[in-house]
Amino acid sequence: MDTIRFYAHGIREASRRPTMIGLLWLANIVLAAPACLLFFGALGAAAGKSTAPLDQSAAFEFLTGSTGEIRGVITAALAAVVLSAFVSIFLYGGILHGLVRGGIGERPGQAFFAGGARYYGRFLLLALYSAVLWISALALFVPIHVLATAVMKDSTNEQLGFALTVFRVALALFMVYFIKMIMDYARIRIVRGDTDRVYDSLAWAVRFVFGRLGGTLLLYGMLGVTGWAMLAAYLVLCRIFPGSTTMAVLSGFLLAQIFIAGRGWLKIAYQAAELELSSRA
Amino acid sequence: MKKLVLGLAVGIFVLNAGLYGALSREVASYDIKARLIPATRTIEATGTLTWTNDSETAVSELPFHLYMNAFKNNRTTFMKERGGLHRGFEAGKDDWGRIDVGRIGIAGGADLAGTMVFLRPDDGNPDDQTVMQVTLPAAVGPGERIVLEIAFATRLPKVFARTGYSGEFYMVGQWFPKIGVLRNGAWKCHQYHAHSEYFADFGAYKVELTVPDEYVVGATGRRESERKNADGTKTLVHVQEDVHDFAWTACPDFVESRERFVLDDPPVATEMILLVHKAHLGSRDRYALALRRALEFFSRSYGPYPYATVTLVDPAPGAAAAGGMEYPTLFTAGTTSWMPAGVRLPEMVTIHEFGHGYWYGIVASDEFEEAWLDEGINSYSEVKAMEKYYGEGRSMVDIAGVKIGDSASQRLRVIGSGRFDPVLKDSWSYISGASYGANVYAKAAVMLLTLERWLGEDVMARIMRTYYERWKFRHPTSEDFIRVAEEESGRDLGWFFDQVLRSPDRLDYAVSELSCREVNEPGGLFDTQKGKPAADGRARGRAGEAAKPTSYRSEVVIARKGEWIFPQELLVTFADGRKVREDWDGKDRWKRFVYELPVKVVSAELDLGRKLLLDVNRLNDSRTLEPERGPVRKVSLRLLAWLQGLLSLISL
């Protein structure tokens, strides 16, 4: 019951912060735009004046016929991915600062940027310390993976092979999100206590999560399900706008941006709900 | 005289018997008794080969394929060429296969074992023992026949390339000493290569197979008899005339189902035998439907299926490497326990491998030297059948909004292939397996699809039917196919086949430029009349009405970007709806078309009706004066949304 309350709290808090959602959306599109502009230019040059339909064959022709341009697009996309990882540290600082201390003499935007800058160093250090968790997870996962590979080698049981593959993928995803959840609580600890004891905060978060495994996992899962529901709704709505008319293209673009803003909203909801859970614990 | 005496002395069985069986010239017929010994993964066999010299040349040396020796060690030509890999499957480290010929001799006569030598005609590899030769005491003359007695033991490898065992599943192909093909006085008996298949003469086969009683068996041909033995085994006798190979399979976990297939026009009556592993029963109905469709398509398109049986073998889990392979009247398919309905792999493999019953089985071209004649023609037939029965543009994959057609996937392989090899080449001499596949399968298939769209579907249908009729149960060459194509189309097609079959280049024509500019009143100095000063064009313009454009100069440049030459038809469309068609022989590197009209050009298009599937870039086949950015925007914004979604998941 408490978990539902924390979940509702997170949703409510996120919904109250349109500026924060807007900033998350802005950071996202600014990082993604260069690769897409390069792609737009390359595709326009290859296909913009062609009457051939842009189907799978055309896409393949474009990819094989514009390798130089595609390399540029891929480079820009990879740069965006790397930058996103570092920008995310800043964004977490902004979100948590806004949630914990927002509204006290600062405008939302100011609070966001102030928080991002204030905690950047500590969160970066936390990311480095989290290597301990990643290595531990790997140490757990690798023997399982090796064992499953050995079982599958020469196996004539296709069902078992399929099940083991699904199991390994599920386990890997669970581990990734489990560590991300621990990191959330560690960041909350740092912001709430405004402490420089980053490693202690991480250790506290590990203890905290394992001490309330059911509650923390359930809350994380509920928010995860919300994210999947948003994705499903987005994919369904995307089918409403077939064709390439200006209106259809514009509508599809707006829908995508609403979805991305929705993901920003969910990110805030995660932090707010976990903040509430940890403060009530 | 000496030869004759010697021949009689060693009991050579020589006859000038008629060569004709029911449908083919029976050159190499086998009568084999084989026993599967599961404990040692071995087949012990004895048998006779009746070989007729169907040439004009007397021969005293007989070469044999010992294909199974390709798996004897890691230094055979087959293993070295691919590093022990075949279609992504890896050879086992301790599961070597081999064939040991214990005895070979003339029936009732001389033992030839002492004359056995291994030949390496292709690469001289001393570790390769896939071709063996024996020397006869006397030559076999044209039209004469010899009977050889052979005893051999074949140890099967763990299956990673078509043949072998996996658990209790056995796929037994290329398992007996198979005599080469004597053509134009020379033997064709190549070593076993990683990228080559087989070539053999037609004959009649009678094979007695003894296996443990619990095994379900499938084999080339019809089952003549079956008996149980006291030692817990059973013996099955299979016979088949007019085939050039014999393969069989055994597994206790097969579920056998039989279905009569009957077609009125053309008349076909055959028995479909499906041996589906119990783990794959979910695919059985899909296999059966695909096989019915294949029988109908090939019978109606080329000629009635001539055999009494066709056997589909579904390899056991763990034996996928045995899948997707053809043998006379029997083929292996492929599926998995959870094969989504929209992924039509079982259907495609069934249709493709059944199709080899025609293009390889009946029209028995040389797979070593001209592999496109079976793989390319069969891939073309596969595309036709798949798109007829499973829908154009979605015949291969139709799942979750993703649709891929067979012809599109073949074309993509052509686009993605490097310009290293032509289609027509010894199959072991390609730069890579990917190049072999892209050329022999895909490019040859797309070549025939292009030819079909260019000549017309009815002409192409006549070509294929005539080629089949003329060359069934014989050994055609590329020249024979080209000859039929030229006869049926009434055109010289040598230039087309020469390019596509023999050159590694590409076909790519493009509308490289499309421009339009206003043609204003004349400006500058012009000689108006002889002996008078030149007039200023601008002044002349001022003197008249106000200068305004009276027409537009539109230019279209079409270019040949690839090396292959193909006649081009250009359609130029103007703003008032006027359309101008232009023809170009396509030989030069480029050609410019200029129009001065009161309206602007709107677009220029090559390859009207999408005939030239071989053209590797369809995007440059047309050009509009004004860009149409809608689709480009849509695709780019989709990419943006996808990338944004990805970035929103990334955090440290």
Helix and strand pattern of chain A: HHHHHHHHHH
- Structural class label of chain A: mainly alpha
Q: What is the CA-based Rg of chain A, rounded?
A: 22 Å
> Number of helical runs of chain A?
10
Helical residue percent of chain B?
10-25%
Give the strand content of chain B. 25-35%
Give the overall shape of chain A, derived from the CA principal axes: globular
Mean pLDDT of chain A: 92
- Average of pLDDT of chain B: 92
* Ends distance of chain B: 93 Å
Sheet with the most strands: spatial strand order of chain B: 6-9-2-1-15-18-17
Distance between the terminal alpha carbons of chain A, to the nearest Å? 14 Å
Categorize the overall geometry of chain B. Answer: elongated
Strands of chain A, total number:
0
Q: Characterize the largest beta sheet of chain A: strand count, sense, and whether it forms a barrel.
A: none
How large a portion of the residues of chain A is in β-strands, by DSSP E?
A: under 5%
The helix/strand class of chain B is: alpha+beta
Can you give me a brief rundown of this structure?
Chain A is mainly alpha-helical and 281 residues long.
Give an overview in words.
The complex is a heterodimer of chains A (281) and B (652). Chain A has helices at 2-15, 18-47, 56-65, 67-101, 108-129, 131-152, 158-193, 198-211, 213-238, 246-280. With 281 residues, chain A is mainly alpha-helical. The longest helix of chain A is centred in the middle third of the chain and has 36 residues, at 158-193. The radius of gyration of chain A is 22 Å and the shape is globular. The mean pLDDT of chain A is 92. With 652 residues, chain B is of the alpha+beta class. In chain B, 25% of the residues lie in helices and 32% in strands. In chain B, the strands form ten sheets. Chain B has a seven-stranded mixed sheet, with no helix packed on it. In chain B, strands 20-21-22-24-23 form a five-stranded mixed sheet, covered by helices on one side. In chain B, strand 31 (568-574) and strand 32 (579-584) form a beta hairpin. In chain B, helix 8 packs across helix 9 (478-489). The longest helix of chain B is centred in the last third of the chain and has 23 residues, at 433-455. The termini of chain B are far apart. At the A-B interface, helix 2, helix 3, helix 4, helix 5 and helix 7 of A face helix 6, strand 35 and helix 12 of B.
